[in-house]
Specification:
659 residues; alpha/beta; Rossmann fold; 4 domains; seven-stranded mixed beta sheet; 25 helices; 30 strands; binds coenzyme A
């Protein structure tokens, strides 16, 4: 679909100029020096631009132009698009800015552009874009002399795009494509990803993104792209979750970056925090090796070995244990004072030859090998790099530390082995690549459980009574409960369920009960009356529950503007906003995903700590039940806090729902 845009037989630049300061001139020069097809500068009065015959309009050319690049003031863009459509053009780039990002007038003009594009079936990039670079031409107004390569960059912001081009130039990262998306009025990142996924010059897609325009499409289509090649994201604008009524814990905890992280994980992409991590991934992606999270560190410096293993632990990767037979073999090549273990210290007197012998022994181990050399009198980085170059295909990552490290890294790079200057960079790159999940397509079907819609009809929030009743429809257990308004009712219910009990103020609105002193625990016959009187004076209704002992877990749900229904979980109770150890997942959540979220947020460790065996399966059921509930009922925001997990079940004891 984008063939005419990225591989055109002819290009016209409308707004071309002889003034070398103007964007219309820089575009013509950049294209002229790189492009082999026909180039038509369009200018209202000039007969010639940069040595090329100029035309006063697209019509004057007299034949169809494949790609029209528009760099005229905003008021003229709609007319140029119409003219392009009449002349049969189906691909355009609108460099001009000053549209919806500026004012109402701009918004109107942008809508008109879209109308014209639809009428003539023109697909366009922008407006407000820097343009794009392909392996055969540069259609941007950037000066950068980009090195050819196989990494594609797709950037939502023009400024950030320019910065990334600069970065690519400085770090000598070779690019296949660079695409600045601009306002994405028509083509957005997903359209460009599809093109790049099938492009043979592109090995991986690196994308700077600020927001996802169409979250449903992102979730549905990006899995097909990551199945073909790695897609790495860096996100700008990592602030708080915006469009949320903060009536629940979920509202005050949720962050937009975490939801985006969950979405990227779901679609099988990689999210990095900064450009350094971006760059570190380039080498590891180029190598085509299947790295593993189990690592053996080989070095000639004990201190560096420790630093590396510290980072491995920080990034939740693991160190392998060497077998006894491997240790016996290694002892034969190590000096007497050295003990073979992981990290494997070949000792400060290790020569290139000792590295060679060690590599020969460990090459077949099913793990990633980080080989770190500190240049010493006995060995240089280049010597070790030459050794490592003989072991391509053995899951090796080199870390070269010394005066000759740049030459050593070049040797590794031409051998297809990823190389780094610092162990932390190597470990982080391995972490990112081994943590990629197989893409999952979220198929959402809303099939409300029978009777559930009756609970929510015409309401914007749910009372305690309705919330508790709704839980059972979705398989989430609640403790025995009742809502009472007289002391007699309270006594009779307590006698029925037995002591101890918990009393809470009961409200028709979601409230944080603990914060207003509305929860009293450990109630038996002796303090029943006083507790009841304290609470009934606050809200007029009291909820009584059987008191449970167990681990407190937080479950949150929200309906995100981009990614739709999502679930949060973490350690619960009053610590939820303090600890912020929260994992995010997109609905529908499978049992495996629920378990993964529990592991990530440390809920699983809490349930299994000191062999207490709290009910993991029941917690999974509660998460998947809540996933279904918010999908079915379109719930805007909810929390179950806490879900008390006992040794034989999990109970929602406090529930807040905003519809
Ligand atoms: N057809 C053909 N040529 C036209 C034209 C039309 N309809 N309308 C104007 N032109 C010519 C002008 O005569 C001028 O040529 P000249 O230098 O020979 O006089 C040239 O096109 C450019 O027009 P001009 O009015 O001088 O505008 P400009 O170059 O100052 O600015 C833009 C035009 C598009 C660059 C400017 O409006 C803009 O949007 N700048 C920001 C771009 C940007 O930052 N984009 C996003 C980056 S992320």
């Amino acid at each position: 679909m984008l063939e005419e845009m990225f591989n055109p037989n002819s290009i016209a630049v409308v707004g071309a100029s002889n003034n070398r300061e103007k964007i219309g001139n820089i575009l013509v020069r950049n294209i002229k020096t790189s492009y082999r097809g026909k180039l038509y500068p369009i200018n209202l009065k000039e007969p010639e631009i940069e040595g090329l015959k100029a035309y006063s309009s697209l019509k004057e050319i007299g034949s169809k132009v494949d790609l029209v690049i528009i760099s005229v003031p905003r008021e003229a863009v709609v007319d140029v698009m119409m003219e392009a459509g009449e002349a049969g053009t189906r691909a355009a780039v609108i460099i001009t800015s000053g549209f919806r990002e500026v004012d109402e007038k701009g918004k109107e003009l942008e809508l008109k552009i879209m109308e014209v594009a639809k009428k003539y079936s023109i697909r366009f990039l922008g407006p407000n874009t820097m343009g794009f670079i392909t392996p055969s031409f540069n259609a941007t107004f950037a000066y950068e002399d980009v090195k050819q390569g196989n990494i594609a960059i797709v950037a939502q912001s023009g400024g950030m795009g320019a910065y990334m081009l600069d970065w690519a130039e400085k770090t000598k990262t070779g690019l296949s494509y660079f695409v600045s998306l601009g306002n994405q009025t028509d083509l957005n990142e997903i359209d460009i990803f599809h093109f790049l996924a099938d492009d043979l010059n592109t090995k991986a897609i690196f994308s700077y993104i600020e927001g996802v325009a169409d979250g449903e499409r992102f979730l549905a289509e990006v899995p097909d792209i990551t199945a073909k090649k790695p897609v790495v994201f860096i996100k700008g604008g990592t602030g708080k979750y915006g469009a949320m009524a903060v009536q629940t814990h979920t509202g005050s905890i949720a962050g937009s970056i975490e939801l985006f992280r969950a979405a990227v994980k779901t679609v099988g992409g990689i999210l990095v925090d900064n450009l350094d991590d971006f760059l570190n991934l380039v080498a590891i992606i180029q190598s085509d090796e299947k790295f593993l999270s189990d690592i053996l560190v080989v070095t000639n410096s004990g201190g560096h070995g420790v630093l590396t293993t510290d980072e491995i632990e920080r990034q939740s990767l693991s160190l392998i244990n060497l077998t006894d037979s491997m240790k016996t073999e290694l002892r034969k090549i190590l000096p007497d004072q050295s003990t073979p273990k992981n990290p494997l210290d070949l000792s400060g007197d290790a020569s290139g030859e000792r590295f060679m012998m060690a590599m020969d022994l460990i090459k077949g181990l099913e793990c990633t090998k980080i080989v770190l050399v500190q240049e010493l009198a006995t060995v240089s980085c280049v010597e070790v790099a030459k050794v490592l170059a003989k072991f391509k295909g053995r899951k090796i990552v080199g870390v070269m530390m010394g005066k000759d490290s740049e030459s050593a890294l070049r040797i590794l790079s031409s051998a297809g082995i990823p190389g780094y200057n610092f162990p932390e960079d190597a470990v982080k790159a391995i972490k990112h690549i081994v943590n990629v999940r197989p893409p999952v397509k979220k198929i959402r079907i809303s099939e409300p459980v029978k009777g559930s819609l009756d609970f929510i009809k015409g309401k914007s929030t749910l009372s305690d009574e309705f919330s508790f009743k709704l839980m059972s429809l979705y398989g989430i257990r609640v403790p025995e409960w009742d809502i009472v308004s007289t002391l007699d009712e309270a006594k009779s219910f307590c006698n029925k369920i037995g002591y101890p009990v918990v009393m809470k103020v009961s409200s028709d609105q979601p409230i944080h009960k603990t914060e207003i002193g509305g929860v009293i625990m450990n109630i038996d016959e002796s303090n029943l009356e006083s507790s009841f009187k304290t609470l009934i004076s606050k809200m007029g209704k009291v909820m009584i529950q059987k008191q449970l002992n167990g681990v407190e877990v937080f479950l949150g749900g929200l309906n995100d503007a981009s990614f739709g229904p999502s679930i949060l979980t973490g350690p619960g109770g009053i610590y939820v906003e303090v600890l912020k150890s929260i994992s995010y997942g997109l609905v529908p959540i499978s049992e495996n995903e629920a378990l993964e979220m529990m592991t990530e947020s440390k809920v699983l460790s809490l349930l299994q700590a000191r062999k207490r065996n709290y009910d993991v399966d029941a917690t999974i059921r509660a998460i998947t039940g809540m996933s279904r509930m918010i999908e079915d009922l379109g719930i805007k925001e909810m929390d179950i806090n806490p879900l008390i997990v006992t040794q034989d079940d999990a109970y929602a004891v406090d529930i807040r729902i905003v519809l």
